[in-house]
Specification:
Blueprint: H1 4-50, H2 59-64, E1 75-80, E2 85-88, E3 102-108, E4 111-120, E5 123-130, H3 131-167, H4 169-179, H5 199-246, H6 250-279, E6 289-292, H7 293-310, E7 314-318, E8 324-327, H8 329-345, E9 352-359, E10 363-370, H9 401-411, E11 415-419, E12 428-434
Parallel strand pairs: 7-9
Antiparallel strand pairs: 1-2, 1-5, 3-4, 4-5, 6-8, 9-10, 10-12, 11-12
């Protein structure tokens, strides 16, 4: 499993190890270089300090004796121009004379020697030191300088571990809070005192919880309303079935059977409308496609023309030009059908229903206008609620038609308005579908 804590510690500790190793190597090499320069400086100083001495005579070699057991790492030798050794700080160590002035390397059986030669007057002064001694001196000093780094690296590693743990503590707190919730706890998660890197995640999660809460409330209300609305027709069906059983003659039985069939039709219509409403939820995953809204409106009006003729309603449409939109064809068919069907049902005989579709610069405008009794201003928002019916309305219906229209309007990012006709009669349902620059409606995210 991918772990943020593990990844952070891996990268931090790996970077710390690489940095420490690089620092250690650089410190060691730099110390070696500086110690070498310091020892070279000492060799020069020793040689220059010997150039003013005038007491170099051969008999000194016999008097000095063997000083090879001294702790002094340096060897000083003085030669005359004829090549005779006049002085040696360690007579047991015999280094060959070098005629070149400056630094050089002399190789002997006991290893390499670093030699500084100085020609002064009639003498050649040599100050020398073994490479092994020089390396040991540099190594000891380098190791002493690396001791603080050896203490610092584990301390930084521990500090990095503590920092990662404390930095991820708010995430652990949020995780624990989410795990303790039940399926119905949709309250927002406390975002107080959380790091700014986690805050966008909490904001998005709280928005999701808010939408889920609204969805749960909507579902509960939907189930409650559906149960309430289905209880009455189902109870009526049960009573009508009992009346059929108790009918004493064929005439009475035929009447009760007819009433039973009508009750079944009403119940089926309610169930059908409930299923349609569920399918038109704004979050329903239904694809959109480019379609001709004008042709669809003409088709729906043609299908409802027989109903209008039966009720002696003048049904007309003004949508000749093709108007393309990007939407759900079946949903838009239901939308237009519900609006026109409602207009026909609530318009008295001899009335008129007109469907128009016009193209504006920024939207397509679909209007359904009737010459019925109109809709009171106080009811114009509530009629989109599920199962809501205007007081005194005797027309048959489930109270779901306009709720379905509202859901379809939301899915298509459209706007619906209700107004009154110019002569203050009837109702006008206007729906504005937004368009893009090329005349197509923008794709809704599903």
């Amino acid at each position: 499993m991918n772990s943020i804590r593990k990844n952070l510690l891996t990268w931090l500790l790996t970077g710390l190890a690489i940095a420490s190793l690089g620092t250690g190597i650089a410190t060691y090499l730099k110390t070696q270089e500086e110690v070498g320069e310091m020892l070279d400086y000492e060799l020069r100083q020793i040689a220059y300090s010997m150039q003013h001495s005038t007491s170099f005579i051969p008999s000194q070699l016999e008097n000095l004796g063997d000083s090879s057991t001294d702790d002094n790492d340096f060897v000083v030798q003085v030669w005359d121009k004829s090549g005779s050794l006049l002085y040696s700080s360690q007579p047991s160590v015999k280094l060959p004379q070098t005629s070149a002035q400056g630094f050089s390397i002399i190789t002997r059986y006991d290893g390499d020697w670093r030699v500084f030669s100085l020609i002064s007057g009639g003498h050649i002064i040599q100050a020398a030191q073994t490479e092994v001694d020089r390396w040991e001196t540099a190594a000891n000093l380098s190791l002493r300088m690396l001791i603080p780094l050896a203490v610092l690296v584990p301390s930084l590693a521990l500090l990095a571990w503590i920092a990662v743990k404390k930095s991820l503590a708010p995430l652990a707190r949020v995780t624990a809070e989410v795990e303790q919730r039940n399926a119905f706890a949709m309250a927002p998660i406390d975002s107080h005192a959380v790091p700014e890197e986690i805050l966008p995640l909490l904001i998005a999660l709280n928005r999701l919880l808010s939408r889920l809460g609204e969805s749960l409330v909507s579902q509960r209300r939907f189930v409650a309303d559906a149960a309430h609305e289905l209880r009455t027709p189902l109870t009526a069906l049960s009573l009508q079935a009992q009346l059929v059983e108790q009918a004493e003659d064929s005439t009475e039985r035929n009447v009760t059977v007819k009433n039973l069939r009508q009750g079944i039709t009403r119940a089926s219509h309610v169930v059908s409308q409930l299923l349609t409403l569920a399918r038109q939820d704004p979050d329903a995953p239904r694809p959109f496609a480019l379609l001709d809204l004008a042709a669809l409106a003409r088709q729906v009006v043609g299908e409802l023309a027989p109903l209008a003729d039966f009720r002696r309603i003048d049904l007309g449409i003004n949508a000749i030009q093709s108007e393309l939109v990007n939407g759900d064809e079946e949903a838009l068919r239901i939308l237009i059908g519900n609006l026109v069907d409602n207009a026909i049902r609530y318009t008295p005989q001899g009335g008129k229903v007109d469907v128009t579709l016009s193209n504006d610069n920024s939207y397509l405008l679909l209007k359904v206008k009737d010459t019925g009794l109109g809709i009171p201003i106080d009811d114009r928002q509530r009629i989109f609620e599920r199962f809501y019916r205007i007081s005194g309305n005797e027309a048959p219906g489930s109270g779901l038609g306009l709720a379905i229209v509202q859901q379809i309007v939301k899915r298509h990012d459209a706007i619906i308005e209700i107004t009154t006709g110019e002569d203050r009669t009837g109702a006008i349902f206007s729906i504005r579908f937004p368009k893009t620059e090329n005349g197509e409606m923008p794709q809704t995210t599903l």
